[in-house]
Each structure stands twice: as C-alpha cells, then as structure tokens.
Amino acid sequence: MGAMLLGIIVSAILYGITLVQALYYYNRYRTDAWYMKSLVAATIVLDTLHMGFVIHTIYFYLITKYYDNEQLNFMIWSVLAEAIPTGVTGALVQTFYTIRVWRLSKRNYVLATLIMLFVLGQTGCGVAWVIISLQLSTYEQLLGISGLTLSINALSTAADVIIAASLCYLLARSRTGFKHSDTMINNLILFGVNTGLSTSLCATASLIALIASRNTLLYAPFYFCIGRLYSNSLLATLNGRHHIRAKVDDTDHMMISLSEASREGTNSSSKNQRAQNIAIRIDTAQEFLTDNKVAIGERSGEL
C-alpha cells in the first residue's frame, strides 16, 4: 500500500504539470488544427478521470476502511478502472508519434505498421487485463495474471523505444549541411529524446519491477505515473515548437552580427589599401539560406 500511495502522490504532481502545460498550449497555439486541440482535450479529460479513480482508491483504503485490515487484501473497483484512461492515453499519444514517424519517413507503411502492431497489442492486452481483473476480488488473485501485466509493459516499452529511435534516425538523416537547417534538426533530435525518454524509462522501470518482484505490487507506482508522462510528453512536444524556433532565430541573429562585423573589417581594410593606390579585384559570394532552398549570388568588382 505504501508503494501505491507514493505512486498516487507523484501522479498528482504530474497531473498539475499537465494542466499548466495545457493552459499554455491553448493560450499560445490558438491557430492549431481542431484535431490537435481535440487530442489535447482528450488527454486532459482522461488524466482527470484517472486522478478521480486513484483518489477514490486511496480515500477508500486510508480513510473509509482505515481500521479494517482485512479489507486491504481486497481490491476496490476504482483501482482497476484507472487502467482504462491510462491505456487510452498511452495509445493516443503513441499513435500521434507514429503518424509523425510515418510523415518523416515519407510514408513508410512498413515502419508505421510495425509500431502500430505494438500499440494495438498493448491496447488489446490492456482491455483483456481490465476484463479479467474486474472478475477478481483480491490482490493475491491479481498476481495470477502478472504474465498479462508483463506483456503490457513489454509492448509499451518496445513501442516507445522504436518510436524514439525512428524519430532520431529520420531527423538525423534529414541534415542538409547548412547551419540553419541542421541547428533546427539537432534541437528537434535533442527535444525528441528528452520528451520520449521519460515514458521509456518509466515503462522499463515498471517492467523491471514486475520481473524482479512478481509477487508484489512494486510496479504499481510506475504504472500510475506512466499515463501522466504520456500526456506531458505530448504537451511538451507541442509547446516546444516556439522554443525551438526561437533558438534557431537567436543563432541566425548571432551569425548575422558576426557577418556584419566581418564586413566592416573588410571595408576598413579596403579603404586603407585604396589610399595606397593599389588595385584589388574582390570576388564575393553571398549565400541566402531558407528552410526550403538555397540561393547563391555572385558579384565581382575592381577597386
């Protein structure tokens, strides 16, 4: 019960962070497509539903049945129902990332299908877990389906790792050799690793805890938190777009300032040389870089 309480506390903290991120998203990205806003709204509703279930669970065991030690061996419906919003949230967010992989890979259906097989497998095992567990009454009986729980965690971990690895590989392959594009790509890779790392680590930790201690509920804290981590990962990805663009703009501004300083030094040197009546031919090449193409213009002159 102590591990469960700890997991609920951490989950509540993550829920608060989710609400803050959602508020920022709706204020900052008002022009986003309706389906993106709907996805964010769905994750918030599911997170709220999950918090309601786990609060009911902890209130029942620590307040209502505080003096009833025998009741601690029996499961209440809400501790099982919380798996529903967690599973749906995970499936939605993983599907969102799968679509990103599909687009970045130029519609690689094989890769996208492979990821979705893990996602659907995880969802199917989750549905089976809920149906079976609702027919059980004690935690000891719940340990009897630990194999199914292990399958859910393994499939979730595999999906997260493949998604993160695919995004990093596809973004790295998109490097063009130009500073502007490569700076944005490097930031996207770093940001993708950071946002996907939390869910992967939590799923892996839950998997390790389940394997190492199959006769306990040591994995429960990780399972209570993983849904909130998926929500925060999604919102961090959406909210990070402006931050990444700002970092690239700052880099461009610094490069422009250095370029201007270099030109000022060149002009000063040219004036000194002209005073000595020395004819110098100067060839300059200007490179203009945009997100889509590069235009190079040349000009020459004699001083």
TrEMBL record:
Coiled coil: none annotated. The chain crosses the membrane at residues 6-26, 38-62, 74-97, 109-132, 152-172, 184-212, 218-238. Residues 156-243 form the DUF6534 domain. InterPro entries: DUF6534. Keywords: Membrane, Transmembrane, Transmembrane helix. The keyword Transmembrane applies. Pfam families: DUF6534 (PF20152). This is DUF6534 domain-containing protein.
